[in-house]
Amino acid sequence: MTAPRTPNPRNVLGRLSLPERNFVAEALRTETVGGVLLLVAAVAALVWANVPALHDSYESVSDFHLGPEALGLHLSVAHWAADGLLAVFFFVAGIELKRELVAGDLKDPRAAALPVVAALCGMAVPALVYTLTSLTGSGSLAGWAVPTATDIAFALAVLAVIGTSLPSALRAFLLTLAVVDDLFAILIIAVFFTSTIDFAALAGAVAGLVVFWVLLRRGVRGWYVYLPLALVIWALMYNSGVHATIAGVAMGLMLRCTTREGEERSPGERIEHLVRPLSAGLAVPLFALFSAGVTISGPALADVFARPETLGVVLGLVVGKTVGIFGGTWLTARFTRASLSEDLAWADVFAVASLAGIGFTVSLLIGELAFEGDPVLVDEAKAAVLLGSVIAASLATVLLKLRNAKYRRMCENEERDEDLDGIPDVYEQDDPSYHLRMADIHDGKAAEHRRIAEEITRRLAREDDAARHGLAEVPGGAGEDDDRPA
């Protein structure tokens, strides 16, 4: 059988290659389930923090400290969620990024240009919108990075809730945007939110990463080797003053994500397959549970639009993300002479760009780091992230619903497999054997329909003959003038 051809990279948001489509479908299924759990956790946090009878218990649980104090790890539950559990999330993000760079769409510079430029513009423009808003209102510039992040799980949860059958190319575009977005968010955290560094602890963390890399290259296997080592690296990174999630992404980037002879999946893909449910189903929802619990009231929401820092966050997510991603995509297509896929319109790109304005997990994390030392502003920034994400989700819902019938037809076409060989028919249009199989299938169907037609014709002829014969045997014949029953 002829291998399905890779789509032309000059076609913007065209159909994915079959291996990439299968990988994206599997990744998005897990992220969608995790996104629904994330929504549930966020709502639970808001209820827990805003019901007067429960508020004190939320504060008590969040501030409860545990962990070995001698190792500098006597942290609150909320701190463990932000620095500990999110390291798992960034570990998966590191694997995703590595796979994209060596085996996915980012491997080809021409294909990578679109999502990379769109992601960079989708981070630069929100930062610019926040900066201009804060400068205009004489506010703090410390939160410029808060609206730069996209939460893929939350975005996919919105898609799952509204039931939009978004085509795989647009979903992959959103996923790749989020991967690149995560990479630069990690760089922002490492560069701009590291104040003091303990070089001894940092050197220990680097040494641990070297050991991790050597063990991987020598083919050493066993979770009982890597899990304790990962915990040591994480603890040293945390004590170094560099955000501990950096350890997660560093270890993710070290995994091999290319297959060798005899392998169906690379080690990176196998580990990602195992860890992604833990990240999407446990780590991120628990982080949301202890980060999204801000007090919401009418005056508090009004303050979001009155204070330049929080207004900058909302405008950055809703306006900056949409304009940045859409503008970056359009400019890339314009100056590379690439054309939009014939099945899509620029309105679809705009809708996805507005969906990327949902900045939840990483935005909440950066908000905590940006305004550290000002608890009131931290809570207000969190409220702004929640409000901006809700507005972006609502806007995206309206825009996507307008095209949902078109998306449904595209998805049905992508999934159709009439020859039942496990490969969607759209990927076999250039394969002669596919068309020969389809010819045999249709010949068989035609023969069956001819047989059924002949059977029906014979049955109708028999019924017609029987009706005429029965009528001829009626006493007196038809039309006789007596009233006796026949």
Chart the SSEs and their pairings:
Layout: E1 11-12, H1 18-50, H2 52-63, E2 65-66, E3 75-76, H3 77-102, H4 109-136, H5 152-162, H6 168-192, H7 199-217, H8 223-240, H9 245-254, H10 267-291, H11 298-306, H12 308-335, E4 339-340, H13 346-355, H14 361-370, H15 375-401, H16 404-415, H17 432-472
Parallel strand pairs: 1-4
Antiparallel strand pairs: 2-3
Helix pairs in contact: 1-2, 1-5, 1-6, 1-10, 3-6, 3-9, 3-10, 4-6, 4-12, 7-8, 7-9, 8-9, 11-12, 11-15, 12-13, 12-15, 13-15, 14-15
How would you characterize this protein structure?
The structure is a single chain. A hairpin with an 8-residue loop joins strand 2 and strand 3 (75-76). 71% of the residues lie in helices and 2% in strands. It is globular and about 105 Å long. Helix 3 runs parallel beside helix 9, helix 11 (298-306) packs across helix 12 (308-335) and helix 13 (346-355) runs antiparallel to helix 15. The strands form 2 sheets. A two-stranded parallel sheet has the order 1-4. The longest helix is centred in the C-terminal third of the chain and has 41 residues, at 432-472. It is built from 17 helices and 4 strands. The chain has 486 residues and is mainly α.
